[in-house]
Write a structure and sequence with these properties.
By secondary structure, the chain is α/β, with parallel strands linked by helices. It is built from 18 helices and 14 strands.
């Protein structure tokens, strides 16, 4: 297969200073029929940096312009996961041969990075023949360093929280053509949240935090790159729902790279490795718009353990051509496309009336606690009223989440019953000054009896809602065979299940 590629030429170890020269040197002797897999280039000291992804991306771009068959990064990622290998230049000969065989590759391009000055990096690369494990070609370059390093002060061995926490940042394009995307997000938010609430880690339901950005809207200050933080991370998901309903579209420039960078840097992401952290960015314009390179933004996210998932509103191949798939692959995230204008028929279910009545009964069991309690309770009541006029599916999903363990956890910072139910507050720690006037006047026995009655009442309502929701889901499943399959909820749930399982979550 490689008869004309026999000489090991270390004379190519010239310090070119340009990625293009490095690619030229590495490609000498390669033929169009050679299948080549380009791996990430790791730092020799294993430090966390944006560099490995950026160098791999630049080298891929350069080699793609030559007559070489390159293997898709998504396939490389899959094989590395199967072999439980780091996608780096530190793979030994035996593992390289195994990886190459699974990839169907003739040659692996491996390499390492080493900072020789503050602003200069040395790249050492080699072509390895999969069949023999021999180094067939090697090249080196010294280039200007244009990326950042991340310095971690934590001990990696103890960088696990053990808690069940999920952080999701939604980046929604609100330019003039995105009405369909916004409508799907509003309609499907609670279904997606419910899916997350069904995940379990060590039998614990997760605390779910969601943040919301809009981008590409001319109503946003140009100096901000038409990117606006609508809400930082919050477990008050009614707040996110309310903000979604307030979004309006207006034409603008869609700077995906900048939107991702802001989400990575502005939000308070957990520093723990076992927390599932993900960005979902949705839009329909080229992923390359703006001065901020999306490669650097995605590399920054990857170094914080954040998956970047891209949702293109349009045909799959069009999204790939506009670099949406590439943006996801660089962080080991996932790419999907949706039809934002898909018409989803509203299906009436026999359980809808009982769910609405049960939701109203559940709302009566909330007991505002503390200063935040009154404000949040008012918001929840407002959202209850809004949900009644929303599609029945929205009401059902929201009711189901409110009755779930994750729903109780999200309300434990303002609702006394949720706080006691989840263990956030012990009964003996309840301060009467944080209760309303009627409850604060109760004796200790009266207050305990009141709490007991609310706990019992809520448990019964939660069980009823769970039963009704299960029956409704079964009815809807039988009645929705002709519903579109390329909608936001379906694509997001597929991605969430896949990635959360990598962080130790299980689901039914």
């Amino acid at each position: 297969m490689l008869k004309n590629f026999l000489i090991i030429s270390f004379s190519l170890l010239a310090h070119s200073g340009e990625i293009s020269d490095l690619a030229d040197n590495l490609s000498k002797g390669l033929k169009p029929e050679n299948k080549v897999a380009i791996m990430d280039f790791s730092y020799t000291d294993n430090k966390k940096s944006e560099g490995p992804i950026i160098i791999q991306e630049r080298l891929t771009t350069e080699l793609a312009g030559k007559k070489i068959t390159l293997i898709e990064r998504s396939l490389i990622k899959k094989v590395m996961e199967e072999l439980k290998l780091q996608n780096s230049g530190a793979i030994d000969t035996k593992k390289a041969a195994e990886a190459g065989k699974l990839l169907g590759a003739d040659i692996l391009i491996l390499g390492t990075l080493n900072d020789i000055q503050k602003d200069k990096t040395e790249i050492n690369a080699r072509c390895v023949e999969v069949k023999s494990g021999k180094i067939l070609n090697a090249a080196s370059a010294r280039i200007k360093k244009t990326w950042n390093d991340l310095v971690s002060t934590e001990n990696h061995a103890s960088n696990h929280s053990g808690e069940s926490l999920i952080q999701i940042a939604l980046l929604i394009d609100t330019s003039g053509s995105m009405e369909g995307l916004i409508n799907q997000t509003k309609s499907h938010l609670w279904k997606i949240i419910n899916e997350l609430a069904s995940f379990k880690k060590n039998e614990d339901a997760p605390l779910i935090e969601v943040a919301l950005y809009e981008y590409g809207n001319n109503n946003i200050d140009k100096s901000e790159g038409y990117v606006r933080l609508v809400s930082p991370f919050t477990s008050n998901l009614d707040k996110i729902s309310k903000e979604l309903f307030s979004l309006k579209t207006n034409g603008g420039d869609e700077y995906c790279g900048l939107a991702i960078k802001k989400a990575v840097e502005q939000l308070k992401w957990s520093q723990k490795d076992d927390v599932y952290k993900a960005i979902f960015i949705a839009g329909n314009e080229p992923f390359t718009q703006g001065e901020q390179p999306f490669e650097q933004s995605v590399a920054l996210a990857k170094n914080k353990g954040i998956f970047v998932n891209t949702i293109f509103c349009g045909p799959m191949q069009q999204g790939i051509a506009m670099q949406w798939k590439r943006g996801a692959e660089l962080s080991e995230g996932d790419y999907a496309n949706i039809n934002q204008n898909a018409q989803i028929a509203e299906i009436d279910a026999p359980q809808d009336r009982d769910i609405r009545e049960s939701m109203a009964s559940l709302s009566k069991t909330y007991v505002p606690y503390g200063k935040e309690g009154k404000e949040t309770y008012k918001l929840k009541k407002d959202m209850d009223e809004q949900a009644i006029s929303a599609p029945k599916s929205v009401l059902a999903e929201r009711a189901s989440f409110s009755a779930s363990a994750s729903g109780q956890a999200s309300m434990s910072n303002w609702d006394l019953i949720s706080a006691i139910e989840t263990g956030a507050i012990k009964r003996e720690e309840v301060k009467k000054e944080n209760l309303n006037e009627n409850l604060s006047k109760m004796s200790e026995k009266e207050l305990n009896d009141f709490i007991d009655s609310k706990l019992k009442e809520r448990a019964e309502i939660r069980a009823k809602i769970a039963k009704l929701k299960k029956e409704r889901d079964e009815f809807i499943k039988k009645s929705s065979e002709n519903q579109p399959k390329d909608t936001l909820d379906i694509k997001m749930i597929e991605i969430l299940r896949k990635q959360a399982s990598q962080k130790g979550y299980s689901f039914k």
